[in-house]
Amino acid sequence: MPAPRPGYVWAPGYWMWDDHYRKHAWKRGHWETARPGYVYEQPRWVRASNGWVMQPERWNRGPDYDRYYGPDRGHRGRHDHDDDYRGGPPRGITARRAMQRRASARRQAPERGWPRPMP
């Protein structure tokens, strides 16, 4: 392994299956740019129901993730797409009525010309 470098993480080499040559091939190690708040997990072989499967390398949240990105940075909030309305349907409209309105609007929308019917 080469000498450590600041701001980088060493990704060690591993054996990968090569479908073209139908044999295992050695993949050399390399340096990965460090990601603050994350921990590098190297590729590894895991036993599955159909034999052995290669799990690719990945970055997992580390113990100091909150220090860099703040607490509770989940996917809910501003970019939540559970419904078509921002912040939920307007007051007094049930979810069922909102779906009926959307379906009605789609039926009444002018045809865009694609796909065109065959003559």
What does this entry look like structurally?
- The protein is of the alpha+beta class and 119 residues long.
- The chain has a domain at 8-74.
- Helix content is 16%, strand content 30%.
- It has a two-stranded antiparallel sheet with strand order 1-4.
- β2 (14-18) and β3 form a beta hairpin.
- The protein starts with 7 loop residues before the first strand and ends in an 11-residue tail after the last helix.
- 0% of the residues are buried.
- The model is unreliable at 75-85 (pLDDT under 50).
Task: Give the helices and strands, then pairings.
Blueprint (H helix, E strand, L loop, with lengths): L7 E4 L2 E5 L4 E5 L2 E4 L4 E4 L2 E5 L2 E5 L2 E4 L3 H5 L25 H14 L11
Antiparallel strand pairs: 1-4, 2-3, 5-8, 6-7
What's a quick, concise take on this entry?
The protein is of the alpha+beta class. It has 2 helices and 8 strands. It has a domain of 67 residues.
Secondary-structure element order, N to C: EEEEEEEEHH
Strand order of the largest sheet: 1-4
DSSP helix fraction: 10-25%
Reported for the largest beta sheet, the result is:
2 strands, antiparallel
C-alpha termini separation: 68 Å
Mean pLDDT: 75
Which structural category do the helix and sheet elements fall into? Answer: alpha+beta
Uncertain ranges = 75-85
Global morphology: flat
What proportion strand?
25-35%
* Rg from alpha-carbon coordinates: 25 Å
Helical element count?
2
Tell me the total number of β-strands: 8
